[in-house]
């Protein structure tokens, strides 16, 4: 019964989405306010209906109702409650339902918080948002219905893929989708603005908080996936340039570029054409990511051709929205004449450089991800494009970007002073040089470029710190004035600086673990000890144990440093029963200097095991960096000038806060 | 099964193919550490042919092990890294390389990013030059400070 309610609510939501698409846009065309207002009501109704539908599916999972096919295929009664819940989106149908739920959540949020948007803009935004919902709801209802019943009802379900039974992974998709789908708002705003033909700095002001919110969630979502891969997959890697990872990374890159170009548009009324285009492209990349992951095209072009129903549908959605928006853009871009003249060396110039490099990097990832598919489809030739290709194309683009980051916030709008800025960055440069020398002295053997790369991270961090220091007149004014200035700096300035610090911290982590990871692959018998990363590990042997839906072999290591016992590590190998599959759980000891990472391997005779021991220097900074980036975004979002629906008087000139000099 | 797996979570599908045992095993490791290091470097650029986007260094598939052993055997005979890679490619085709070779079939792949970068720079330069020209023209046609003062004076007087 509950499943039917869910199904019914889903179909009803489709109807409501249709209404949301047609009426408000028609109203905006005719200038009919009451029709435009239907948009808000429909957006909220659609959200509530989808919420109902989603909870119906969740109920079926929680109560292990195996008469629902989706539950039968992806759940099991012995599964821990957390994974019964996360199982809802741990499959194709459920994850698509989550997708549209989040889409509707954003739509209703615009309806709710966008009170002071011009009514016709709001109506068009909600209309475009509704049309995306229509497309995806049609997709779900016709090809991916999660509420299909089966008869006879099986006694037990087949279970969730064990590799997905993990706390970090449970919350990875909701975060990722919130990011992915959140960019739909920027897209809808762009299309709505193109329809109405009015695009001004206010547009950027309205779009930025939504883009920033989506970007923050996508940042965390990607970081969670990477963190999970690190501790679960068992060889200490954290990014694999895998097509599925790239599918989420491309919208992130485009979204990052969009965040920066929207600043130029808001403050200087420039870069309009480009910003609108980026808003369209960012969400198009989200759609493409959905297509790549959902269609099965990644496994092989062949697999896609065998069962094309779903893939072709999503492809059609992608082509329709991307193509439609781009066509509209091509037709209307002429009306977007720019204001705001500026010199190449200026804040605008720096933000353009940011956009140029990030967009090129995004294009490199795009081509690398799709090229093998395209080549195989066209010529039948099979090639592989893996991490070595991406490292060779992506990294060289990031180096100039990282060098340039500290300059950006220092440069004045319109015309910047590169010499003056370099002088203001002298402290940061000095600190960076010191860090590079220290890295050479301390690191021992390793790639000779590594300390320089580490310096890049330090440079970005110190550049951001210097900028805040400069604005507060640190060392140049009496302390109480410095504190007063620090208190009065706009939060968006802190947000920028903190997000940039996050980037620097992440770079330090990436360089640290990539350049100086040490590894030992050894056979150990109980009682034997090994040294790695300054730790001594004594192998105690392996014991079997029974978990809720798996049995495991748990290894035991005593970790000591300089003769004092620090901790015990328990890497294990799990054998899940439903479905039968093996996983490894690494044993990790985290410290500031790095992670001691242990993996249990094959059982050889006489209690001996193959073990893999790693020391991953600074690796945690990668994820700490992303959390700092998230916090930077959060602080920026809390700036009242950026807050959703902030009144117009925030445009007072004082708010610009260009450092007074 | 494969189809089921492709329907699992985004961003994770591929990892579902990863089986969790160890990749390089102790018995494969060469005695000469310099040679072993070279073997590892080569292994990282060779694809495990039966896996999804994994190098033979990361994979525990039997075929990956065979390839790792093969690489090490060739190295022991004194071949250079390039010779070893060429041999593996001659045997398994270019699909085995995680970093495709530059050639007619990969022109688009390798040149896209540099071309986009150059094109972007060119477009930016053109936009800047055009707008500077516009601004200069405006400057020529607009009033100088002196003229403005004169005009203001006239307006005030009238």
Core attributes:
heterodimer, A: 661 residues, alpha+beta, Four Helix Bundle (Hemerythrin (Met), subunit A), 4-stranded antiparallel beta sheet, globular, disordered C terminus, B: 158 residues, mainly alpha, Helicase, Ruva Protein, domain 3, 2 domains, rod-shaped, disordered N terminus
Write a structural description:
The complex is a heterodimer of chains A (661) and B (158). With 661 residues, chain A is an alpha+beta fold. Among the domains of chain A are: 1-165, Four Helix Bundle (Hemerythrin (Met), subunit A) (Up-down Bundle); 405-516 and 621-639, no CATH class; 518-618, no CATH class. Chain A has helices at residues 2-30, 33-62, 69-74, 81-86, 92-113, 119-143, 167-196, 201-232, 243-268, 272-295, 301-306, 309-332, 347-379, 387-404, 407-410, 418-424, 426-443, 450-471, 479-488, 491-516, 620-637; strands spanning 518-524, 529-532, 535-546, 550-561, 564-569, 572-576, 581-585, 587-591, 594-603, 609-617. The longest helix of chain A is centred in the middle third of the chain and has 33 residues, at 347-379. Chain A is globular. The N and C termini of chain A lie far apart (70 Å). The relative contact order of chain A is 0.08. By secondary structure, chain B is an all-alpha fold. Chain B has two domains: 20-101, Helicase, Ruva Protein, domain 3, CATH 1.10.8; 105-157. In chain B, 58% of the residues lie in helices and 0% in strands. Classes of the chains: A alpha+beta (661), B mainly alpha (158). At the A-B interface, helix 7, helix 8, helix 9, helix 10 and helix 13 of A face helix 1 and helix 5 of B.
């Amino acid at each position: 019964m509950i499943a039917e309610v869910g199904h019914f609510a889903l179909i009803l939501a489709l109807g409501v989405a249709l209404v949301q698409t047609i009426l408000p846009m028609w109203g905006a065309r005719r200038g009919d306010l009451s029709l435009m207002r239907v948009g808000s009501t429909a957006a909220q109704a659609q959200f509530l209906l989808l919420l109902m539908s989603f909870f119906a599916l969740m109920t079926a999972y929680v109560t292990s109702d195996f008469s629902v096919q989706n539950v039968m295929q992806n759940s099991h009664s012995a599964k821990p409650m957390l994974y019964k819940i996360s199982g809802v989106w741990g499959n194709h149908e459920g994850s698509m339902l989550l997708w549209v739920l989040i889409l509707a959540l954003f739509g209703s949020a615009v309806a709710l918080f966008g009170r002071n948007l011009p009514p016709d803009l709001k109506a068009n935004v909600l209309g475009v948002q509704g049309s995306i919902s229509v497309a995806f709801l049609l997709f779900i209802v016709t090809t991916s219905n999660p509420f299909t019943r089966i008869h006879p009802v099986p006694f037990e379900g087949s279970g969730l893929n064990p590799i997905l039974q993990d706390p970090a992974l449970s919350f990875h998709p909701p975060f990722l989708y919130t990011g992915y789908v959140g960019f739909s708002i920027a897209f809808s705003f762009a299309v709505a603005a193109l329809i109405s033909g009015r695009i001004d700095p206010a547009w950027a002001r309205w779009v930025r908080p939504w883009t920033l919110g989506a970007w923050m969630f996508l940042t965390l979502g990607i970081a969670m996936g990477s963190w999970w891969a690190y501790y679960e997959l068992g060889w200490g890697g954290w990014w694999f340039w895998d097509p599925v990872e790239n599918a989420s990374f491309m919208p992130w890159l485009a979204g990052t570029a969009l965040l920066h170009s929207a600043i130029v548009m808001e403050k200087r009324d420039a870069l309009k054409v480009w910003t609108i285009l980026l808003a369209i492209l960012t969400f198009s990349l989200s759609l493409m990511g959905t297509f790549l992951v959902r269609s099965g095209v990644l496994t092989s072009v062949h697999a896609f051709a065998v069962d094309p129903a779903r893939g072709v549908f999503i492809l059609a959605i992608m082509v329709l929205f991307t193509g439609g928006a781009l066509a509209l853009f091509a037709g209307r871009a002429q009306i977007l004449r720019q204001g705001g003249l500026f010199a190449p060396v200026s804040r605008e110039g720096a933000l353009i450089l940011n956009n140029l490099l990030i967009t090129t990097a995004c294009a490199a990832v795009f081509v690398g991800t799709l090229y093998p598919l395209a080549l195989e489809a066209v010529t039948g030739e099979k090639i592989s494009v893996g991490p070595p290709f991406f490292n060779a194309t992506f990294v060289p683009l990031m180096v100039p970007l990282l060098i340039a980051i500290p300059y950006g916030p220092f440069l004045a709008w319109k015309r910047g002073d590169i010499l003056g800025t370099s002088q203001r960055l002298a402290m940061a440069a000095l600190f960076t040089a010191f860090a590079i020398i220290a890295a050479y002295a301390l690191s021992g053997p390793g790639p000779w470029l590594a300390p320089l790369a580490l310096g890049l991270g330090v440079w970005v961090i110190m550049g951001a710190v210097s900028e805040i220091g400069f604005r507060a007149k640190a060392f140049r004014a009496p302390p109480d004035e410095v504190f007063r200035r620090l208190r009065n700096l706009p939060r968006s300035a802190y947000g920028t600086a903190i997000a940039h610090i996050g980037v620097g911290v992440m770079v330090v982590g990436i360089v640290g673990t990539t350049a100086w990871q040490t590894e030992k692959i050894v056979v150990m018998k109980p009682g034997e000890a090994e040294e790695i990363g300054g730790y001594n590990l004594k192998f105690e042997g392996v014991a079997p144990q029974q978990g809720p839906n798996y049995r495991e072999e748990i290894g035991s290591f005593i970790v000591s440093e300089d003769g004092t016992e620090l901790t015990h590590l328990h890497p294990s190998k799990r054998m899940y029963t439903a479905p039968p599959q093996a996983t490894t759980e690494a044993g990790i000891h985290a410290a500031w200097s790095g992670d001691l990472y242990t993996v249990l391997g094959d059982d050889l005779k006489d209690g001996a095991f193959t073990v893999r021991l790693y020391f991953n220097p600074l690796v945690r900074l990668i994820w700490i960096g992303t959390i700092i980036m998230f916090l930077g975004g959060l602080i920026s979002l809390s700036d009242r000038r950026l807050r959703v629906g902030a009144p117009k008087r925030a445009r007072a000139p004082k708010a610009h806060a260009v450092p007074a000099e | 099964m494969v189809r089921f797996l492709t329907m699992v979570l985004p961003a994770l599908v591929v990892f579902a193919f990863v089986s969790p045992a160890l990749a390089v095993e102790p018995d494969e490791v060469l005695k000469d550490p310099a040679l072993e290091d070279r073997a590892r470097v080569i292994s990282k650029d060779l694809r495990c042919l039966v896996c999804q986007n994994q190098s033979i260094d990361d994979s525990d598939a039997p075929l990956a092990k065979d390839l790792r052993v093969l690489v090490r055997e060739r190295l022991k005979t004194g071949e250079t890294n390039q010779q070893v890679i060429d041999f593996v490619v001659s045997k398994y085709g270019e699909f085995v390389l995680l970093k495709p070779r530059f050639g007619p079939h990969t022109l688009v792949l390798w040149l896209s990013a540099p071309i986009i970068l150059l094109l972007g720079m060119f477009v930016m330069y053109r936009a800047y030059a055009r707008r500077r020209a516009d601004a200069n023209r405006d400057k020529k046609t607009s009033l100088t400070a002196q003229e403005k003062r004169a005009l203001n004076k006239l307006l005030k007087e009238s």
